[in-house]
Amino acid sequence: MILPIVAYGDPVxxxxxxxxxxxxxxxxxxxxxxxxxxxxxxxxGLAAPQIGLPIRLFLVDTEPFSEDDGLPKDEANxxxxxxxxxxxxxxxxxxxxxxxxxxxxxxxPDIREDVFRxxxxxxxYFDENFVEHTEVxxxxxxxxxxxxxxxxxxxxxxxxxxxxxKRLIKGKLTNISKGKVNADxxxxxxxxxxxx
Length: 196
Hints:
- The strands form 2 sheets. Strands 2-3-4-5-6 form a 5-stranded antiparallel β-sheet, sandwiched between helices. A two-stranded parallel ribbon has the order 1-7.
- 26% of the residues lie in helices and 31% in strands.
- It is built from 4 helices and 7 strands.
- The chain has helices spanning 27-40, 73-80, 139-152, 163-177; strands at 5-6, 45-47, 57-61, 83-105, 108-126, 132-138, 187-188.
């Protein structure tokens, strides 16, 4: 089932998510719905807060990035086959050079900005079967994970922008929270129903 994506301005996007256990109600169904929702919105990642759940759960499928002709073949292959569920994730280490990449977010449609992030991460998490992993990722895969991880920490990519950039997009962000944006997927707007 395709779920509505929570828009910028909803308090759930600023909450730090809570850990869950393997008995979380209807987890398998939730994961199926989240993948379906992400694909319907043409995203490469989706975190539980983006569908209104303040829990430490996100999923990633970077295959769309693999079609970029400018990528080295080995990175394109890594992106093509990278589809994972991250539960109760904790980034243990961020290393390497910081590099800029233009990011967007399904909760913040029509805004794309350069964000600086470290090149490599070491992350501990549980998969959908509650098997624990500690892994190291670099490049675009690391960046997508960092973006989604920020969601379960209550951080949005716009929080990482300079004060000037934030001022320049403030009006657009306000419009998004009021539902004054054209997204080609279902959304839930925090201020639209309150008549503001």
